[in-house]
Design brief:
CATH superfamily of the largest domain: Alpha/Beta hydrolase fold, catalytic domain
Largest sheet: 10 strands, mixed
Radius of gyration: 27 Å
Helix content: 10-25%
CATH topology of the largest domain: Rossmann fold
Number of helices: 8
Shape: elongated
Structural class: mainly beta
Strand content: 35-45%
CATH architecture of the largest domain: 3-Layer(aba) Sandwich
Number of domains: 2
């Protein structure tokens, strides 16, 4: 039996005869070599975690002989303690300058010690390692690594940091980098548990749909790996590789016929390490050659930029025909304007707390005043006109005819105001109706449900009433959450729907499928979204105390202008 691995410009051949799980043998790079400076390994313990309260754990720190305390050292974190003969590999490769000077941190999973000899300890390994979300990454970044940094000078630059592990430790490594690519850019995964234990089976889909992140990934697995109740580890590894390649990640792999052991990883670890650190200190490239539909929207190199900051809160962005963006600060009771020159000014001061904003065909800015239960409009000079009283309005949509739809999440209702100012309920029973938008052709009304998973679609009838209600747009939910957090929405000329959610901006095609996810510009929740700028191709999001923007290939639709019919979606 023979397996092969291509790394960079050289090839590695690994040969076995009977059972790969037993016959993979580490080479000389994994063994002490004469004349090579030997680093030191020191054992520590940690029991101060607030993220995993009550846990104790051991960890080891490898410090190479070449370490200079005056210079921040690169870092590589490993789960499950001392594995892969890593200290020998570090000694040999650092001495030959094939990798940079690296401090290795080898961490055991936490244990909550039982209070009685007749009771079991609580073993946190699966909870910490297999779970999605950023808890384990935060544990590393906020608790464990700062403890190490009290003793050693560690680089905090993500380009200088790698993370790896086997089995559940491998998915923990990938999750840490996935959640915080600014902190870890290089991942070594051996026999990774990307299966249905705690949601790891969802990664291939998430990778295919989420904006590529600057992570370099090395995968190892064997065809005799686990095939048990949680899934098939071997097939899952191939799904991960396919998804990473599809999305333009820097990814490499070696497959064999090994079982669920570390023996194959031990044998190939030195070459995997060389590949992970190749071209260092050049940064890891994100999304090169990505085939994601998201690339039809995003512009390479164009990320989120702060458009306005220093607010108490931000919400309800709306763009006028010129592309100027207006947004409210409900806690500061103000409506602000971002001009085409990027300058921010106050449009309306001392404004009763507002949330939703949108321009109408008369050129006026319509606003939900939720504190005073009114819908009002403002002319160019900021003069206010009351449109509706006794309106529990959270967000609103204004048609090209000047009609208004608005959501009332307090009473679980959607309301309609016709051109004569008459108000009536057109839907009720959505758990938390929030964002509300019209499709580009204005034939459908879309309503987000913050506490559910779907955006609802209604067909608009000639008299403004709604029919054919469906839970149409299927959103992704963050691990551990019971809701999508869907809030504000925007649409582009292709009929794609942009929804602010707990995961970021989820982009759906007209058939109701998520085609892409743009991660949030900061960890805080997104509240709303709009296309602005002179060509309406700049995506603005409100996010706690800031407004962010990024240039896109897409062009937004203004509902106060004449409807347009977008192209038919691929079904």
């Amino acid at each position: 039996m023979r397996t092969s691995l291509l790394i960079g410009l050289f090839a590695i051949s690994l040969t076995a005869t009977v059972n790969a799980a037993d016959d993979y043998v580490p080479g000389p790079d994994s063994k002490p070599q004469p004349g090579v400076p030997q680093g030191e390994v020191t054992k520590y313990s940690f029991d101060k975690s607030k993220i995993y309260p009550g846990t104790t754990r051991e960890y080891w720190v490898y410090v190479p002989k070449q370490y200079d305390p005056a210079t921040p050292a690169c870092v590589m974190v490993f789960q499950d303690g001392l594995i892969y003969s890593a200290t020998n590999v570090f000694n040999n490769l650092i001495a030959r300058k094939e990798i940079p000077v690296i401090i290795g941190v080898f961490i055991k999973p936490g244990i909550v010690t039982s209070l009685s000899t007749n009771a079991l300890d609580r073993f946190n390994r699966s909870y910490e390692y297999d779970g999605l979300g950023d808890d384990y990454a935060r544990f590393l970044l906020e608790e464990l690594l700062p403890d190490v940094a009290q003793k050693y000078n560690l680089s905090t630059n993500g380009n200088d940091r790698a993370i790896g592990g086997s089995s559940s430790g491998a998915i923990a490594a990938f999750t840490a980098a996935w959640e915080h690519p600014e902190a870890f850019t290089r991942v070594f995964s051996s026999i990774g548990t990307f299966v249905g234990l705690r949601g790891g089976n969802e990664y291939p889909t998430s990778i295919r749909q989420t904006e590529p992140k600057p992570i370099r990934v090395f995968l190892q697995d064997g065809s005799n790996d686990h095939n048990i109740y949680g899934g098939n580890w071997w097939l899952a590894a191939q799904e991960m590789l396919s998804a990473l390649e599809f999305s333009g990640y820097e990814v490499n792999h070696v497959w064999g016929d090994g079982a669920h052991t570390q023996k194959h990883a031990d044998a190939i670890f030195p070459d995997a390490l060389r590949w992970l650190w190749k071209d260092y200190p050049a940064p890891v490239v994100a999304g090169k050659g990505s085939r994601q539909p998201l690339m039809d929207v995003l512009i390479p190199g164009e990320g989120w930029q702060v458009a306005s900051a220093g607010h108490k809160s931000t919400d309800g962005p709306a763009a006028n025909a010129a592309g100027e963006v207006f947004f409210c600060d409900p806690r500061d009771k103000a409506i602000n304007k971002i001009g085409l020159d990027g300058k921010v000014s106050v449009f309306v001061a001392n404004h009763p707390s507002a949330s939703g904003l949108m321009f109408g065909p008369d050129g006026k800015l319509y606003a939900c005043q939720f504190a005073s239960k009114r819908i009002v409009s403002y002319d160019a000079d900021g003069k206010e006109t009351v449109i509706a009283e006794d309106a529990e309005c959270n967000d609103l949509a204004v048609t090209y005819k000047g009609e208004i739809y608005f959501t009332d999440h307090k009473n679980k209702k959607v309301w309609f105001i016709n051109a004569r100012g008459e108000k009536r309920v057109v839907d009720e029973s959505i758990t938390f109706p929030n964002g509300i938008r019209l499709t580009p052709d204005q034939s459908l009304l879309l309503v987000s449900d913050t506490r559910g998973q779907f955006v609802y679609s209604f067909q608009i009838q000639p008299d403004g009433s709604l029919a054919q209600k469906q839970r149409f747009f299927h959103l992704h939910i963050a691990d551990g959450s019971m809701q999508s957090g869907a809030d504000g929405m925007a649409v582009d000329t292709h009929g794609w729907l942009y929804v602010t959610t707990e995961l970021g901006v989820q982009i759906c095609d007209q058939a109701g499928r998520v085609n892409g996810i743009i991660p949030k510009p900061q960890s805080a929740a997104l509240s709303n979204i709009v296309f602005g700028g002179p060509n309406h191709d700049e995506l603005y999001v409100t996010c706690r105390d800031k407004v962010f923007k990024r240039k896109t290939k897409a062009q937004g639709v203004l509902s106060f202008q004449a409807p347009i019919k977008p192209p038919t979606p691929k079904l």
